[in-house]
Amino acid sequence: MTWQTLAFLIVGGGAFFISGKRFHTLYLMMKAQKGKAPKISDFGARIKNALVYVLGQKAVLQKPFVGIAHTAIFWGFIIITIGTLEQFCMTLYSGASFEFIGREPYSILIASQDFFTAFVLFGVLMAAYRRFMNAPKYLTQSSDANYVLLFTGGLMVSIFMMNAFHVLGTNPWFTDSYFISKHIASALAGFGFSEDTNHNLYTLFKWIHMSIVLGFAIYIPGSKHLHIVAAGPNTFLKKLNREKGMTPINFEDETVTQYGASKFTDMSWKDSLDLYSCTECGRCEELCPAWNTDKPLSPKRLIVDLKKNLYRNKELVLAGKLDEVSHVIDDHVTEDVIWACTSCRACEVACPVFIEHTDKIYDIRRNLVMMESKFPAEVQAVFKNMETNASPWAFSPSERANWAQGLDVKTMADVGNAEQLDVLLWVGCAGSYDDRNKSVVKSFVSLLNKAGVKFAILGTEEQCTGDAARRIGNEYLFQTLAKANVETLNRYNVKRIVTACPHCFNTLKNEYGEMGGQYEVFHHSQFIAKMIGEGKLKSTKPINETVTFHDSCYLGRWNNVYAEPRAAIAGIPQVKMVEMRLNHDKGMCCGAGGGRMWMEETIGKRVNVTRSEQAIETGATTVATACPFCITMISDGMKTKDMVDKIKVRDIAELMDETT
Question: How confident is the model at residue 138 (pLDDT cuts 50, 70, 90)?
Answer without folding.
Answer: confident
